[in-house]
Amino acid sequence: MERFFHSELEHLKSKLILQGEKCYLSANSSVNGFKDSNTDECENALQLEPSIIELEKEIIHAAIRYITLQNPVSSDVRLLFALIKISNILLRVSSESCNIARKTKVILSTYGKTHYAPYINTISDHSLNLLQDSISSFINEDLKLAQTIEAKEQESVNTVMIDFFKENKESQRELLLISNSMEQVSNYSKEIAQNIIYLLTGQ
Q1: Quick check: pTM over 0.70?
Q2: Contacts of 104 (CB under 8 A, 6+ apart)
Q3: Domains assigned to the chain
Q4: What averages of pLDDT result for each successive group of 10 residues across the chain (203 residues)?
């Protein structure tokens, strides 16, 4: 019986890893859609959203069912609540990725291509790296990696952003919204890392 419960927990963890992988693919596609003026990449990001939403529902349902029926020990309860929280954060990452894809499509429909924006490249590379690190830290139970994410998230690109907006007026609103979404992905990666730290240390 204990082995069966353990396999249930591993199955839940696998679902979260799959959700994380899909979120990363969505974020990466939306960023590539902007960088390459590619509507197909934007559509790829948007098409991943329903499966990410469904995985979150499955994880929450299974975790609550497990807590209700199995009377888990405290360490398992901590894992289950971490799974629920991280799954919800990943859902928000997906939402921001879709925001980027939709705003990119607005720019493409208006101007035909996205304006070269070095600061967005800086933000997007930073955000994608943090997201990948947060997922990897969960997969590998890597406490040290999780602890480095918060410090990295504090890196600022405000000066680059201000300089860009001084020089470029076209699609300024959409670019600002896209950059905000990319920065929000960094914030969510930090939240994921904080939950992993709690999961691994209880603090």
Answers
A1: yes
A2: 30, 33, 34, 39, 42, 114, 174, 178
A3: 2-201 (1.20.58.220)
A4: 66 95 97 94 97 96 87 84 96 97 92 77 89 96 91 54 53 77 92 94 84
